[in-house]
TrEMBL record:
One of its GO terms (molecular function) is ATP binding. Keywords: ATP-binding, Coiled coil, Endoplasmic reticulum, Nucleotide-binding. It comes from Trieres chinensis. PROSITE patterns: HSP70_1, HSP70_2, HSP70_3. This is Uncharacterized protein. InterPro entries: ATPase_NBD, BIP_NBD, Heat_shock_70_CS, Hsp_70_fam. It comes from the Eukaryota.
């Protein structure tokens, strides 16, 4: 069942990126600030893109990233060297001097926690003094320090040397992985890219993302808002529909949350309002469960693992699996042999307890929904469709709360119903 959930999330992510890339390539090639959907929809083969100057689309996510490219007139989501279409946004530095990116980096996180960097998207474009950065310092297993300019940097140790990297540099390493994946598939060098970002990213975060692209050797032609791309994908089948329709996109991913309200009429989209939280997502739900089991273990066994990053990483990996399982079942077992000093962890987590632990965070996501309605001067009854994007929207409680807010309205849980 867990594998099915992963496949569902992967398909939604691929469809979103494929459509965003189609739209962005057309926009980039025609150098337009705005393109009616009808124009984009008739250009699905992207014949304007030169094979000699390929352009790729990258979804640079908090927890996972993926890349798409145009080959032989078709947009394809490209599998990495492990055969996976989504790549963990992880970078690790081993003691022997090797740098690992993606699956290999995540796979060794439990044995090398202080030198394995993840969730870097939560730091990019922020100041070291930011409250969210200070909060992350307490939760993440690697060192986060401030540089002379007041910006955050991460510190790792390799071959007895301490090295510091900016969030842009770490992000660039992930982008380089995406670039290399695309180049292997296309058989030629890639220099241009379109990158999707949360709609609620501010100017500093967007510029930092562009800077990461430059460091990676890519020219970032466009920065595309993720929720807008999702709405475009959702509306592709309604180009010929008459009358104005209001669509609300609720995008809850691993580390960021966006709500965008758009109007569409005859295939032309107009963004009415946007809100969200660039520091709220599935990772925060995981952290609540980690804290819960850490306290439980201390109470039952007298063992405190809060300062043991290897144990925390073992627990984090299992918690992620259990959380996904609870989207389709009422309870799940968490089993970790030798979590620390021969102590095992064997417990059951129910969906009800998971919802209780994260109830305030779930409710917190409704505030931006109300805000976009207020900013657009619309009522809940004025919303015609609600589109869910992001792996965390598979959580049943989130779906029920959102539907209830809109008087029981049915939610669109997949851009293509056949892939939901």
């Amino acid at each position: 069942m867990v594998k099915r959930n992963k496949a569902h999330i992967r398909k939604k992510r691929e469809k979103l990126l494929r459509t965003a890339l189609i739209m962005a390539i057309v926009m980039s090639m025609l150098s337009l600030a705005f393109v009616p959907l009808a124009m984009a929809a008739t250009t699905t083969t992207i014949s304007e893109v030169s094979d000699d100057a390929p352009i790729i689309g990258i979804d640079l996510g908090t927890t996972y990233s993926c890349v798409a490219a145009c080959k032989d007139g078709n947009i394809e989501i490209i599998a990495n060297d492990q055969g996976n279409r989504i790549t963990p946004s992880y970078v690790a530095f081993s003691e022997n001097g090797e740098r690992l990116i993606g699956d290999s980096a995540k796979n060794q996180a439990t044995t090398n926690p202080s030198n394995t960097i993840f969730d870097i998207k939560r730091l990019i474009g922020r100041r070291f003094a930011d409250e969210t950065v200070q909060s992350d310092r307490k939760l993440l297993p690697f060192k986060i320090l401030g540089d002379s300019n007041g910006n955050p940097v991460v510190e790792v140790r390799q071959k007895n040397n301490d090295m510091r990297f900016t969030p842009e540099e770490i992000s660039a390493m992930i982008l380089q992985k995406m670039k290399s994946t695309a180049e292997s598939y296309l058989g030629k060098e890639v220099k241009r890219a379109i990158v999707t970002v949360p709609a609620y990213f501010d100017d500093a975060q967007r510029q930092a993302t562009k800077d990461a692209g430059a460091i990676s050797g890519l020219v970032v032609e466009r920065i595309i808002n993720e929720p807008t791309a999702a709405a475009i994908a959702h509306g592709l089948g309604s180009i010929n529909s008459k009358g104005e329709k209001n669509i609300l996109v609720y995008d809850l991913g691993g580390g960021t949350f966006d709500v965008t309200l758009l109007s569409v009429e005859e295939g032309v989209f107009d963004v009415l309002s946007t809100s969200g939280d660039t520091h709220l997502g599935g990772e925060d739900f995981d952290q609540r469960i980690i804290k819960y089991f850490t306290k439980m273990l201390q109470k039952k066994s007298g063992v405190d693992i809060s300062g043991d990053q290897r144990a925390i990483q073992k627990l984090r990996k299992e918690v992620e699996r259990v959380k996904r399982a609870l989207s389709s079942q009422n309870q799940a077992r968490i089993e970790i042999e030798d979590l620390v000093n021969g102590v095992d962890l064997s417990e059951t987590l129910t969906r009800a307890r998971f919802e209780e632990l994260n109830g305030d965070l779930f409710k917190k996501t409704l505030n931006p929904v109300k805000r976009v309605l207020k900013d657009a001067n619309l009522s809940k009854e004025d919303v015609d469709e609600i589109v869910l994007v992001g792996g965390s929207t598979r959580i049943p409680k989130i779906q029920s709360m959102l539907s209830e807010l809109f008087g029981g309205k049915k939610l669109s849980t997949g851009i293509n119903p056949d892939e939901a």
